[in-house]
Amino acid sequence: MANVSVMTPGHAHWGEFIARLSESRTCLQTTEQARALLEEWAEVDVEQSLRALRDLGGYCDCEIVNGVGGSHWDPALWVDP
Ligand SMILES: [Zn+2]
User: Fold this and answer.
1) Residue 79 φ then ψ, to 5°
2) What is the pLDDT of residues 11-63, one digit of tens each?
3) CB 56 within 8 A of CB 68
4) Which residues surround ligand 1, an ion (CB under 5 A)?
């Protein structure tokens, strides 16, 4: 079975996903960086995951890390273009 899991809190790779997304330090006010990461996991349904993350308040990369991930992201370290 391929493309069956949805990347939301609780997913086996959630911590890794948030950690890697937070490394980018740049939010383009899109979810393109999140999408690029999600595409690396063959079993993850990218579109469904992005929809689920939006439902949780993750409308862009930094909101996914900060709002949905509840990480220790420091907004001062991020750059808004
Ligand atoms: Zn953002």
Assistant:
1) -115, 130
2) 999 999 999 998 888 888 999 999 999 999 999 999 999 999 999 999 999 89
3) yes
4) 27, 60, 62
Ligand 1 centroid – CA 81 distance (Å): 10
Calpha distance 38→43 (Å, rounded): 9
The residues that bridge with 5 in the sheet, in sequence order, are 44
Q: Positive or negative, the Cα torsion across 14, 5, 49, 80? A: positive
What's this model's pTM, rounded to 2 decimal places?
0.83
Alpha carbon of 78 to ligand 1 centroid (Å): 9
Contact assessment for residue 2 and residue 8, using Cβ atoms and an 8 Å cutoff: no
SS3 5: strand
